[in-house]
């Protein structure tokens, strides 16, 4: 299955980067800019540098991105060298691919054309298939049938069978309920090796059961796959032949209901930020400026909690 439609957003953990490249080689991988800034501010602080970083990331064209990077180089060449080590395709909008950042109509046209191409590819693949199941389901079920050849079956004259196999593998298959004590049949919808062995045993004893594939759930059938992609996306003319819509073109914002209480302005903190303001004794650290006692002129407490003596003026 193609994974080119996946986009992952994460921090720059060393284990995540190679894992995504290996498991999803065609997927897009973006770095969270807030995490990049958190790493940056360990050496380079200041609101000005932070704004330059965000301007670089939000620039929509490569020349604009390079211009903002040049501004960073003028301010601090070491920061510039540090940012150049991070591939811009992972964090700079100017290097992003696809239609995600395009205007709404262009984005929808991209999706429509992609769906047309996708359906065509699937139709060509379906035309080359034969058999009752899809290619992937056929491959998986052939593996199950090869394992089922090692099992023996004992019938109890009703709908239940005892299946014995290598390594003391003994299970009970209920044909009436279409279940097996290994639970693979119920969970996947595809008969397990124990159920396949029962199917073969029933056929040998003259019971009309059909082929083992007939016990497979319809979701794995080739006919179901054809029905899913039987609809098509019609082509349309260019914008110069579009008929003007009679619907209102002015889009109004949704009605806003003012919430009760003081409005929240602070950003919701991530999980790794929740413990940053907690001291060793489990108490929250006071945020803001350090207070000074008006009695002893010491810092870190006020006159109400002061244990010293009032200074004589």
UniProtKB/TrEMBL annotation:
<dbReference type="GO" id="GO:0008270">
    <property type="term" value="F:zinc ion binding"/>
</dbReference>
<dbReference type="InterPro" id="IPR006564">
    <property type="entry name" value="Znf_PMZ"/>
</dbReference>
<dbReference type="InterPro" id="IPR018289">
    <property type="entry name" value="MULE_transposase_dom"/>
</dbReference>
<keyword id="KW-0233">DNA recombination</keyword>
<dbReference type="InterPro" id="IPR001207">
    <property type="entry name" value="Transposase_mutator"/>
</dbReference>
<keyword id="KW-0863">Zinc-finger</keyword>
<dbReference type="Pfam" id="PF10551">
    <property type="entry name" value="MULE"/>
</dbReference>
<feature type="domain" description="SWIM-type">
    <location>
        <begin position="161"/>
        <end position="203"/>
    </location>
</feature>
<dbReference type="GO" id="GO:0004803">
    <property type="term" value="F:transposase activity"/>
</dbReference>
<keyword id="KW-0862">Zinc</keyword>
<dbReference type="InterPro" id="IPR007527">
    <property type="entry name" value="Znf_SWIM"/>
</dbReference>
<dbReference type="Pfam" id="PF04434">
    <property type="entry name" value="SWIM"/>
</dbReference>
<keyword id="KW-0479">Metal-binding</keyword>
<keyword id="KW-0238">DNA-binding</keyword>
<keyword id="KW-0815">Transposition</keyword>
<dbReference type="GO" id="GO:0006313">
    <property type="term" value="P:DNA transposition"/>
</dbReference>
<protein>
    <recommendedName>
        <fullName>SWIM-type domain-containing protein</fullName>
    </recommendedName>
</protein>
<dbReference type="GO" id="GO:0003677">
    <property type="term" value="F:DNA binding"/>
</dbReference>
């Amino acid at each position: 299955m193609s994974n080119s439609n996946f986009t992952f957003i994460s921090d720059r953990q060393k284990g995540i980067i190679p894992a995504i490249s290996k498991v999803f080689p065609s997927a897009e991988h973006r770095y969270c800019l807030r995490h990049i800034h958190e790493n940056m501010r360990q050496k380079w602080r200041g609101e000005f540098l932070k704004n330059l970083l965000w301007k670089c990331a939000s620039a929509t064209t490569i020349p604009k991105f390079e211009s903002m990077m040049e501004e960073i180089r003028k301010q601090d060449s070491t920061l510039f060298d540090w940012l150049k080590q991070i591939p811009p395709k992972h964090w700079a909008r100017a290097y992003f691919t696809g239609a995600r950042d395009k205007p709404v109509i262009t984005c929808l046209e991209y999706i429509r054309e992609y769906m047309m191409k996708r359906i065509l590819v699937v139709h060509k693949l379906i035309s080359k298939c034969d058999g009752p199941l899809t290619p992937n389901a056929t491959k998986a079920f052939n593996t199950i049938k090869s394992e089922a050849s090692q099992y023996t079956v004992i019938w109890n004259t009703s709908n239940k069978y005892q299946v014995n196999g290598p390594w003391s593998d003994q299970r009970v298959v209920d044909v009436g309920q279409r279940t097996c004590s290994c639970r693979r049949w119920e969970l996947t919808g595809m008969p397990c090796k124990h159920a396949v062995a029962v199917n073969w045993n029933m056929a040998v004893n003259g019971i009309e059961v059909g082929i083992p594939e007939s016990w497979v759930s319809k979701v794995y059938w080739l006919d179901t796959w054809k029905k899913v992609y039987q609809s098509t996306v019609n082509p349309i003319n260019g914008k110069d032949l579009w008929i003007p819509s009679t619907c209102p073109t002015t889009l109004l914002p949704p009605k806003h209901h003012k919430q009760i209480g003081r409005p929240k302005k602070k950003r919701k903190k991530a999980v790794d930020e929740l413990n940053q303001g907690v001291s060793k004794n489990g108490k929250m650290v006071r945020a803001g400026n350090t207070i000074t006692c008006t009695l002893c002129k010491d810092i870190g407490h006020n006159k109400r909690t002061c244990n010293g003596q009032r200074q004589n003026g």
